Amino acid sequence: MRNLFFLGLMSILFFGCAPAVNEVNVYSGRHYEIDEVLFAEFYEETGIKVNVIKADADQLISRMELEGSASPADLLFTVDAGRLVLADQRGLLQSFESSLVDELVPLSYRDAGGKWVGLTSRARVFVYHKDKVNPADLSTYEALADPRWRGQILVRTSQNQYNQTLMASMIAALGAEKAEEWSRALVANFARSPQGNDRDQVKAVAAGAGSIAIVNTYYVGLLHNSEIAEERALVDNLGIFFPNQGDRGTHINISGVGLAAHAPNRENAIKLIEFLLSDHAQQLLANSNFEYPVSSRVPWPTLVQQWGEFKADTLQLSDLRSYLQEAMFIFDRTGWK
Ligand SMILES: [Fe+2]
User: Rounded to the nearest whole angstrom, what is the distance from the C-alpha of residue 214 to the centroid of ligand 1?
Assistant: First the structure.
């Protein structure tokens, strides 16, 4: 009898008090070490423990779908706005209110419905070989489809989220028909069948496999600061070009976070989001990966400042929802592998 009482008491302690465990569960498609540092600091400051499950964003989204209302996920971190838009389309996110988010994060870098918010932004730029390309000959994403660049363009596959979101932005800007024409002509200019990641495209330009790569800004920063001397040397011959300065501006993507629809630790989740928008966290996030902080209160990293001011596309990233599916059809129809 006493034992039964004891067992009952133990279950109350274990299960009855479960919600009192001060934690937040993160599903993360981010691949940056700085996150661990910031999560440890967050614990130090608030006593809220951050539990992290890391996987590819698509896997995490499928997992959240399978888990349904029993999902332990509080937050979904991604390196792409498109993945947050998809998660929202599948009913996996919920909206939240935060005056801090409203104050610090520009409208284009957060969900219009208040379900996700950017943490850092990155521009999808051209990296060109200085010996082969005069930057005066560069202008827009559209102009890379000109036959003059036949055999010169390097970009990774259409399976990659950065390219999918870029294509969605092209559809938003040009309409589906023009975006498809662009894609077909761009594919005809590819230096090789798409392979490798953004870093590999930059290396290929340096090695002379092509002359212009379409990549995220921070990969240049990572190579510039690489521990490997040969990687650092590569960057000397390369220039960065911000396209579409005469019209809508350069395509921007974000790394961001969405609040899970069934978040069991909702308040803690919002606290973590706000912590990551603090000046201190924004500075660490931006500096560690050579990105742009979303908060306007925080200066750009020194190297990023050297790349110069530029006009960014102000397309509201949550508007991409209407174009992501079409982007996949266009890749398919135009042979962008
Ligand atoms: Fe990346």
Answer: 13
Burial 25-43 (b: 16+ CB within 10 A, else e): bbbbbbebeebeebbebbe
Whether residue 197 is found in the same domain as residue 137: yes
Q: Which of 26, 31, 20, 59 is nearest to 42 (CA)?
A: 26
Q: Rounded CA gap, 210 and 333, in Å? A: 24
Q: What is the pLDDT of residues 15-30, one digit of tens each?
A: 444 556 899 999 999 9
Report the separation in Å between the CA atom of 292 and the middle of ligand 1, taken as the mean of its atom positions: 14
Q: Kindly give the distance from the C-alpha atom of residue 259 to the centroid of ligand 1, in angstroms, as a whole number.
A: 22
Average pLDDT (289-317) is 96
pTM for the whole thing? 0.91
Query: Which residues are within 8 A (CB) of 263 and not within 5 positions of it... i.e. 6 or more apart?
Result: 73, 74, 75, 94, 269
**Ligand 1 centroid distance, CA of 79 (Å):** 7
- Interval between CA 7 and ligand 1 midpoint (Å): 49
Cα 212 to middle of ligand 1, angstroms: 18
* Cβ neighbours for 88, distance < 8 A, ≥ 6 positions apart: 111, 113, 115, 116, 258, 318, 321
The number of folded domains in the chain is 2
Shared-domain flag, residues 204 and 244:
yes
CA 30 to ligand 1 center in whole angstroms: 8
Beta bridge partners of 153: 190, 212
Assess whether 329 and 197 both reside in one domain. Answer: yes
CA of 22 to the centre of ligand 1 (A): 31
Kindly state whether residues 160 and 240 are assigned to the same domain: yes
Range 206-222 average pLDDT: 96
Distance 297 CA to ligand 1 centre (A): 24
**pLDDT score of 266:** 98
